[in-house]
Amino acid sequence: MKLLPSLLTFALALAPALSSGPQPREHYYTIDPNAGPAANTAGFTISRLTGFALNSNPPGTETMYSWTKASSKYLFHFYTTDPNGEKAPQAGFKLDGPAWFGPQGNQPGAVPLLRYISTVEGNDHLYTTNTSPGEINYRYEGIAGYVYADATRGGVPINEYVHAATS
Asked: Under a CB-based contact definition with an 8 Å cutoff, are residues 50 and 159 in contact?
């Protein structure tokens, strides 16, 4: 299974729309080591390391799928191990494809990737391994999947990029 190309090309196409008017906080996650310059151009800044994942799909891993919802002003990302996207399609999200491959929950070194949803902008999701993410206006939704706690299993970093609200 091939990983999807960087979503930054799509984000760059929306950059003019993203820069006008008040913005909710947006979160984007990638294992692409070259995402930084394009993300910065699109108004995203690297925020934190979320965990580690694989860029291949060996036995004992599960696929984390990336879904995107675009509007005239915003670009939102949703991640799930459900190939049908949970309720993402009904909310207007489109499947981009595999974002990365994470461990199944019962493996050594696996930690839950927790999903939070914005109570201000219901399309923005925050993903973290921290049970106290330090973000205000986010409500816990559940476990989105699993990631590795460190790179000892050959994992690559999952970086979080944030497009902060502007006015």
From this structure: yes
Task: Please check whether residue 29 is in contact with residue 79, taking contact to mean a CB–CB distance below 8 angstroms.
Answer: yes
Which has the closest alpha carbon to 99: 118, 81, 115?
81
Task: Check: pTM over 0.85? Answer yes or no.
Answer: no
What three-state secondary structure class fits 33?
coil
DSSP characters over 51-63: EEEBSS--TTEEE
Q: Which residues of the chain have pLDDT under 50?
A: 4-23, 166-167
CA contacts within 13 A on the Cβ side of 125 = 21
Q: Which residues contact 130 (CB under 8 A, 6 or more apart)?
A: 114
The whole-angstrom separation of Cα 96 and Cα 66 is 5
Total H helices, total E strands in the chain:
3, 9
Instruction: Give the C-alpha separation, 69 to 96, whole Å.
Output: 10
CA-wise closest residue to 66 among 53, 80, 52: 80
- What gap in Å lies between CA 34 and CA 121, rounded to an integer? 28
Q: Cα separation of 46 and 144, whole Å?
A: 21
